[in-house]
Amino acid sequence: MKKKSLVIVESPTKAKTIGKILGEDFSVVSSMGHIIDLPQKKLGVEIEKDFAPEYVTLSGRQKVLTELKKEAKGKTAVYVATDPDREGEAIGWQIKERILKDANILRVTFHEITPSAVKEAFKHPREFDTKMVEAQVGRRILDRIMGYFLSPLLWKKIARGLSAGRVQSVALRLIIEREREIQKFVPREYWEMEAELAKGNDKFLAKLDKIDSQKAEIGKKEEADDLCGDIKGKQFVVSEIKKSEKKRYAEPPFITSTMQQDAFNKLRFNANKTMSVAQGLYEGIDIGQDNPVGLITYMRTDSPRVAPEAINEVRSFIARSFGKEYVPEKPNYYKVKKLAQEAHEAIRPTFVSRHPDSLKTFLTPDQHKLYELIYNRFLASQMKPALYAVTSVTINAGKYQFNATGSTLTFSGFTAAYNRNGEDEETEKDKAKKNVIPALAKGDILELLRLLPSQHFTKPAGRYSDSSLIKALEEDGVGRPSTYAPIIYTLILRDYVRRIKGYLNPTELGFMVCDLLVEYFPKIIDIKFTAAMEEELDEIEEGTLGRLKVLQDFYTPFKASLDFAQANIKKEVITTDEVCAKCGKPMIIKWGRRGKFLSCSGFPECKNSKSITTGVKCPQEGCGGELIERRSVRGFFYGCSNFPKCRFTARTLPESKE
């Protein structure tokens, strides 16, 4: 039987899930992402003609294009059901305008791939949103202009194969600036003083807070020892007791950035892995009788909004599972940040009745972990606050004032489903919970059991992780939900940064690239400038700003910086003391796809080159070689200079035996 309608989506998995839902009257095919885009080997933007883009069929996509045209032939309707964001709108628009011009094409969007959501969406198809398309085209042109003109400058100055980007370069700048803060940081010693006190058989800890009504500051061990000697002879008297109730409120359901942050903090997933796993949960998982079904809503979103029917469903579920006392009188609503795409929903489970435990056999371990995180966060977002009974005690010992705080959970609230805190914050909470304050009264005299001075050193801000970098970019207004994971991936791919034990460490190459861009393009990779540009792109989508104006406002200062850089930039030559074994000229340091290496300064007449060794001897018995940093598709490792005779490899550099 000939199928009446064609549905076009981006991925084969999504096509399979939607095909099962729509049934035999629909043929569902995948475009495999973009088919039409700017050309790969030239600018593809006519700057003098109002930045007109020159679109072409992407290499290797001709077969898909031919297949789409064939499938569309004779169909009564063609539906484009690509993702409900700018990128999805643009993919669909290109198909409509450049591939299937004469077909009756309608746009269908949904934020979850479930039978009810998909069928409802197909009852209400719409025209394409040209403002969304304009915003995506503007973003694409901006990124192309920057990449096309900046990358050759990096090649000229440093090495071929490098790249720069509008958001990527700002992210690199943040990482580099943080690293320089760490390098300059000088630790400062300080001491803290706790007293273990008792009333009868009950013990608790109090911390020294003030000396002679001034904030207690102890700089060295000698000062701490002197204080201990003086305090030991004092009488400890309770001077004030305060009791209060504190509330901890649930966080909103996940948006893209907070999901990536929590997946790193709790599961140690990097941003790319988080988005890959989430994509699978969104596009459809075979869970038995239901066949493939989307388990979460669309995972690229900056809006915490939740559909009313989903709120009603989760409130009923909370009442059944936890008790009515956990359900707030009115639903919890969360503030939507400026220019967030409010039509989108937060990331949530499509059906609250599908508990993570019931799906364990159908999901991979990683899918189950992320689904459970999303599920529990959504439940918690519609629950009452947690309540704590807090006791604060002030204790005087002569001129010394000690404070003690203890808290007891009196109502678990949202924490029954999900605890939002990261490990560091949770440790502090645990301390307060464990420090149970006994029944005390003003004027009580306490027994001093012992004084506990402890040495500490101030620490610099930590290196960025995927989580903290995404948070910083989001707070600065740089980038959008779809860009965070690809940015970090690109920085690592280019070897500007390396992920070591979960944290982003800039390389020597990263420093060089960043410093060059800051020197020649200070405004273009300025955080505030990039954030303002991001807002302007959002305003194109809102219809309050034209694409041409945004591009002109960007290009004028960019062109001035570009002209200056092209006239003044020179190849950086780093000479070494080593001489070429073939011609005797000095060897210089160059960068290639596998990192740094030594090259003859007489190149191209002399093509001699050699790897730069780490100076660490190969651990293999009798080898005599030295370890060299090498790069593979799996990342960096250390291999022997005598390869292939010696095949020793290691992920970390062994300690030198010398």
A few lines on this structure:
With 658 residues, the protein is of the alpha+beta class. The protein has 17 helices and 27 strands. The protein folds into 5 domains: 5-128, 3-Layer(aba) Sandwich (Rossmann fold); 142-184 and 466-568, Topoisomerase I, domain 2; 189-249 and 389-457, Topoisomerase I, domain 3; 256-381, Topoisomerase I, domain 4 (Orthogonal Bundle), CATH 1.10.290.10; 574-650, no CATH class.
Major sheet characteristics: 6 strands, antiparallel, barrel
The Cα radius of gyration reads 31 Å
Work out the count of structural domains: 5
CA(first)-CA(last) distance? 78 Å
Q: Uncertain regions: pLDDT < 50 for 5+ in a row?
A: 421-429
Q: What is the CATH first-level class name of the largest domain?
A: Mainly Alpha
Mean pLDDT: 90
Shape: globular
Proportion of residues in extended strands: 15-25%
Per CATH, which architecture of the largest domain? Answer: Orthogonal Bundle
Total number of strands? 27
Q: Output the CATH homologous superfamily of the largest domain.
A: Topoisomerase I, domain 2
Side by side, the strands of the main sheet go 9-10-16-15-12-17
CATH topology of the largest domain: Topoisomerase I, domain 2
Q: How would you describe this protein?
A:
This protein has 658 residues and is α+β, with helices and mostly antiparallel strands. The protein folds into five domains: 5-128, Rossmann fold (3-Layer(aba) Sandwich); 142-184 and 466-568, Topoisomerase I, domain 2, CATH 1.10.460; 189-249 and 389-457, Topoisomerase I, domain 3, CATH 2.70.20.10; 256-381, Topoisomerase I, domain 4 (Orthogonal Bundle); 574-650, no CATH class. Helices cover 37% and strands 23% of the residues. Helix 5 (130-157) packs parallel to helix 17 (547-568). It is globular. It starts with a strand and ends in an 8-residue tail after the last strand. Residues 421-429 have low confidence and may be disordered.
